[in-house]
Amino acid sequence: MNCDELRDSYELYALGIAEEPERGEIRAHLERDCPTCVPGVRGARELTTLIGATAPAAEPPARLRKRVLAIAGGGTGPLLKWSRLWIAVAAGALIAAVVFNTRAQHASEELARVQAESAAQTRELARLNEAFAILNQPDARQVVFGGAAPQPPRGRVFLDRTRGVLLLASNLPPAPAGKTYEMWVIPKGGKPVPAGLFQSAADGTALHLLAGPVNVAGTAAVAVTLEVAAGVPQPTSTPIIAAFTEPRP
């Protein structure tokens, strides 16, 4: 077992209640002066000592106290030992509660992380399914873009009247910090309509989908500009991508 797997068992080992195989693994790590486990166990022992020293004095139940006093003939020696025993038990219970609470918190955080990743993967799968659905439409309008400048963004735009607009691009560098790419659907004789924000991948590729019905016949172009991260209602910069649905004069 590696150090990360043993980390949550340091306190139990320091209390002498760690179970196998963790107990044997920690002992083996300590014997070879593991740079992670040695200070980890040392800190756990310091923690148990501190909690034991600060634990409040715990009085045994009155019935047991009477029995101890009767056995001791009313002396205070056994009672003192009995109180110390209860302090040790209370400290051990407190440390165990801290350890198990930490483990539960870690498990909860890990579950939340897995659930978030699963939700993100589900959304991405749904997005890809929508993209493939547009690509498979025989009557989807396809427009190619990419100018003559050195290594311009290149790609294709697909427009389907019932499913939406799909942008596939390459040679599109990641947006600078605080910026994002914004797509626009530009109607004939009208103002650009915001069509969503997106980022390109590290390799310069991008897939962006605007789902929903679109007036293909009434669309003059699909464009992309670089805007502030929150997006804007109207373009504020020269389009980086401009895909015209009809040949320009």
By DSSP, the count of extended strands is 8
Radius of gyration, in Å, reads 34 Å
What order do the helices and strands follow?
Answer: HHHHHHEEEEEEEE
What count of helical segments does DSSP give? 6
Query: How would you state the average pLDDT, rounded?
Result: 80
| Overall 3D shape | elongated
| Overall number of structural domains | 2
Distance between the ends: 70 Å
> What low-confidence regions span 5 or more consecutive residues with pLDDT below 50?
53-58, 71-76, 78-82
For the report, how would you describe the main beta sheet?
4 strands, antiparallel
Fraction of residues in H or I helices: 40-55%
State the secondary-structure class. Answer: alpha+beta
Strand content: 15-25%
Characterization of the model:
It is built from 6 helices and 8 strands. With 249 residues, it is α+β, with helices and mostly antiparallel strands. The protein folds into 2 domains: 114 residues, no CATH class; 104 residues, Immunoglobulin-like (Sandwich), CATH 2.60.40. The strands form 2 sheets. Strands 1-2-3-6 form a 4-stranded antiparallel beta sheet, with helices on one face. It is elongated, with a radius of gyration of 34 Å. The termini are far apart. About 7% of the residues have low confidence.
Pick out its properties.
249 residues; alpha+beta; Immunoglobulin-like; 2 domains; 4-stranded antiparallel beta sheet; 6 helices; 43% helix; elongated
Would you kindly provide a brief summary of this structure?
The chain is α+β, with helices and mostly antiparallel strands and 249 residues long. It is built from six helices and eight strands; from the N terminus they run H-H-H-H-H-H-E-E-E-E-E-E-E-E.
